[in-house]
Specification:
two-stranded antiparallel sheet, 7 helices, alpha/beta, 215 residues, Rossmann fold
Length: 215
Amino acid sequence: MKQPTESGGKVEKINYQKETDKVLESLCGRPGLLLHSCCGPCSSYVLEYLSRFFDIKVFYYNPNIRPEEEYKRRLENQKKLLREMHPEGVCPEPVTLPYDPAPFEEIERGLEDLPEGGERCLKCYRLRLEKTAEYAAAHGYEWFCTTLSVSPHKDAAALNRIGFETAGKYGLKYLVSDFKKRSGYLRSIRLSEQYGLYRQNYCGCTPPGGGDLPQ
């Protein structure tokens, strides 16, 4: 994948959507992809888009979500989308792990008051991508990816960097992406409305400053 380069003292940004296009054009057949999903709404557009190219299994691993009732609500929402949308080549049941916020609590210690987009988020990206890659490697998947970049609040450059680092560690292929591009985020909103999905108003962890969780 292309790396940022300097031109006239300025760093030229990568168009990750074009990089995705190149990868998809080069695929042979329909390889298996383990798709980390943060929630049903974010996965809706990504599944619609990628199901044309891959056989997909959704991996729902999000120890950052609090409280447990919220975690379960989002999981049921994810299952509802898979049942009702049932895109071709997508397994109708996600991979799930027992609810366990301890790994996230460990990495966020001392970072609780940082705003979204800071070091806590980067550690959370890595935590979730590491677990996804670990599962993918253990179960024979060639590719893995995450839905996180569909959100306008998520740093696609950081996600791709961590994704490639993790892929190298586990001997996998990471699908470079910035799913918010080409109106991907807007499409996820429309699909959420179409399938009657619950759309939460916070990512998962307690808001900065230790305030109350959004209702």
